[in-house]
From TrEMBL:
<dbReference type="GO" id="GO:0043190">
    <property type="term" value="C:ATP-binding cassette (ABC) transporter complex"/>
</dbReference>
<comment type="similarity">
    <text>Belongs to the ABC transporter superfamily.</text>
</comment>
<protein>
    <submittedName>
        <fullName>Cobalt ABC transporter ATP-binding protein</fullName>
    </submittedName>
</protein>
<keyword id="KW-0547">Nucleotide-binding</keyword>
<dbReference type="InterPro" id="IPR017871">
    <property type="entry name" value="ABC_transporter-like_CS"/>
</dbReference>
<dbReference type="GO" id="GO:0042626">
    <property type="term" value="F:ATPase-coupled transmembrane transporter activity"/>
</dbReference>
<dbReference type="InterPro" id="IPR050095">
    <property type="entry name" value="ECF_ABC_transporter_ATP-bd"/>
</dbReference>
<dbReference type="GO" id="GO:0005524">
    <property type="term" value="F:ATP binding"/>
</dbReference>
<dbReference type="InterPro" id="IPR003439">
    <property type="entry name" value="ABC_transporter-like_ATP-bd"/>
</dbReference>
<keyword id="KW-0813">Transport</keyword>
<dbReference type="InterPro" id="IPR003593">
    <property type="entry name" value="AAA+_ATPase"/>
</dbReference>
<dbReference type="GO" id="GO:0016887">
    <property type="term" value="F:ATP hydrolysis activity"/>
</dbReference>
<dbReference type="Pfam" id="PF00005">
    <property type="entry name" value="ABC_tran"/>
</dbReference>
<feature type="domain" description="ABC transporter">
    <location>
        <begin position="2"/>
        <end position="237"/>
    </location>
</feature>
<dbReference type="InterPro" id="IPR015856">
    <property type="entry name" value="ABC_transpr_CbiO/EcfA_su"/>
</dbReference>
<keyword id="KW-0067">ATP-binding</keyword>
<dbReference type="InterPro" id="IPR027417">
    <property type="entry name" value="P-loop_NTPase"/>
</dbReference>
Length: 241
């Protein structure tokens, strides 16, 4: 169970005159996330990626607490990250080894397996995601969709309880987007999906709409999508001369 209690995230930013001031990036937010599929939507800069990164301790709250199964991300970050895997928008941000086999094996190092068992488990993970035949090819030779599958495979090989995916299909073409969406929908793990793909968002059990650093909607996906469209339309009107 993921719980956020009175969470705020702030940062220092310079003013035009060179002085620094505190700006609010997110919050206050209080949430309990227990549903199997949770989607998060919002405009660029709304705070949705900050919210996603809070869930496994990549971002720590400036105030309030984030806990996963009772573990505080601020004090038990390593334990939290064993439970909550994270997939970035750009797979190149997390795929670091020369071949898929080496990359998945690297993610398994923290499990304390010997080399042979790590390789066997890495090959098994690649096979589950349709990458078995590509285990030893250079990562640079993979398509964008294959690299995103590799990033997901490396995270899931460690068997986390929760997967947080931050716009995992934004850089993909239509075919790969559909493939990754189907994959995420089929996982046994709890999935928190940050996305601009409203077709994927509406299939979740619960939808969060983030706007100006606040959760502007929390509930059933279909009315939430309508609320989000209204927010986008109003923001666009405000920008018009």
């Amino acid at each position: 169970m993921i719980e956020l209690r009175d969470v705020q995230v702030t940062a220092w930013t310079p003013d035009p005159d060179g002085r620094e001031r505190v700006v609010r990036l997110l919050g206050p937010v209080s949430l309990t996330l227990g549903e199997h599929r949770v989607a998060v939507v919002g405009a660029n800069g709304s705070g949705k990626s900050t919210l996603a990164r809070l869930l496994n301790g990549l971002v720590l709250p400036s105030a309030g607490t984030v806990t996963v199964d009772g573990l505080d991300t601020a004090t038990r970050g390593a334990d939290v990250r064993r439970r909550v895997g994270f997939v970035f928008t750009d797979p190149d941000a997390q795929v670091v080894m020369p071949t898929p086999l080496e990359d998945v094996a690297l993610s398994l190092r923290r499990l304390g397996l010997d080399d042979a068992e790590r390789e066997a488990r890495a090959r098994d993970a690649l096979g589950r995601f349709g990458l078995g035949a590509l285990a030893d090819v250079p990562v640079a030779a993979l398509s964008a969709g294959q690299r995103q599958l590799l990033a997901i495979a490396a995270v899931l090989a460690t068997e986390p309880d929760v997967l947080v995916a931050d716009e995992p299909t934004t850089l993909l073409d239509l075919g790969w987007r559909a493939h990754v969406d189907r994959l995420l929908a089929s996982l046994p793990q709890q999935v928190v999906l940050v996305t601009h793909d409203l077709d994927a968002a509406v299939r979740a059990e619960r939808l969060l709409v983030v706007d100006d650093g606040l959760v502007a909607y929390d509930g059933e996906p279909a009315p939430g999508i309508a609320r989000y469209r209204d927010l986008v339309a109003r923001r666009h009107e405000e920008l018009l001369p």
